[in-house]
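Give me structure tokens for this 555-residue protein.
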Amino acid sequence: MSERDDLSAVLEWASSGFDLHSLRFDLNQERQLVLTLERLIDVSRSEHGRCTLSLLRAVPLLISVIPQFLVRFVRSDFEGPENLRPLLWLLKLLRNLCAGEAANQDAFLESEGIEAVEIVAQNIISSKKDVVLDDWMTDIIQMSLQLLGNACGGGELHKDAIWSRFFPTTFLTLALMRHVRQEKVLEPLGMVLYSCCRENKDRLMDLCHGNGAALFGACLRMTSEIDAGGWLHLLVSQICLQQPFLPILFPNLAAISITETSDIDYPKIGAREKYCVEQAVLLEFLCSLLCEKLENGWGKLDGHAEECVQNMPMHAKSLGFIVCIIKNASVFSNPGCTPPRKLPTGIPSIDVLGYAINIIRILTTWECDAAKVSHPSSNHRCCGRKNLSVMDELTTHGIIELCLFLLQELGPPVLVQRETQEEDKIEGIAESSSLSVRNPYEGYRRDIVAIIGNAAYRNRAVQDQVRQKGCLFLVLQQCVVDKENPFLREWALWAVRNLMEGNAMNQKELADIKFLGPSTSQEFVQMGLKVEMDPVTARPRLSNVLPYSIDEESK
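Here you go.
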């Protein structure tokens, strides 16, 4: 049977007379219909097949019979879920026909295919059928969204038509549905949203306000519950990296006020103003995107400072906002458990803080890489705004003061504090009531030190700023092993190295630190070891503690 005959069979079946009250139909005829649609689906999988069906005007014909399919299968009192198969197969055929075939995409728009798909979605949404139908209804919603996503390839007219019919109400309803398998809805919904909004500032802005933010937030929450969200990652990249819309979208995801200030007076936030899961997932997406860019080398860093600027990973207007998120989130970052959890911790306020700090850490790492390429033979990088601007923007918004403040709030690492307490006991000084403030999440202290180290790389202004704040020794104290902060020692050594490089005043201040002698920790004592100075190398070394002799012990 030819494709023309198959199309004629579908049209004949849909237009055949039946009783609208009883809606009775021939089951054998239905099986033949399904087989016919399956043959057409096989044909539509190839470019040649789609072109052939386009010449036969298949898309207008198929759209014209959708109402009959709905009457017969969606509104009928059918016996089982498989009765939805013909409608599903019809949508699948249309989806295949609109995949990369301009003629079919145009025919879909001209034949009011978008309106027909909206009717299908609304019928499924409003359906109160038994739960056994959920999988089939979900498949129909999935196929409808995939069809719309393929239709977006037709151009701006197609995207405008889809956006005007489905945004925000129908999209939002689909995103909020809980009685279907969410992963089968999220991916095609993200595909449609991304296809419509890509490089379109007006539609991207629509997603940052009101019901648009509610829609985006619902998708983010859905992503936190299931392992799906590739299209949403691309959409987040458009909104937050390529466009300066992060300061608009982020607060609209929840009722929280972000006060953007460049001074160090941290805004006071009421107890009711807390962060939400959607905001944490958004920043987690940003971290993932930036890590991927960093691993891929961020494009063209081939020695030209101008290209470094063009490839800056985040819009300059969003950099200061990230700093303000850290300022605000630090208010809510009381440790939730001991030992601290890795990100994500499941506590939105801590996750928001952690991912915001990691975003800054990744951005300053990019700045270091760009500085190496732009000024490979120079000890200092140019800090003017005409060249590398990431660190300039962050410094303007007080990132160094903020990191030093947070590090001071933590106090010295646990190992350093233990040593200090043991020395105080020996000298008869009252013991401190507690050790350092616990890390909100695993790696918190390390990430702060990493930002300081990256920022100080060939940056005289940052080097001087840390010294002027009296924090050189504070950074030096971080050069220890800390089980709650993997690789803290390595990052601290990187920070000290960068703070000292080419800065005579910092080197002098560090050289003036008076060495009082070795200190033996309780752990070493329990192992029968002690720390002493090697008279030859003038460096500390471990040696065995002389044991008591057997004779002395017997006395």
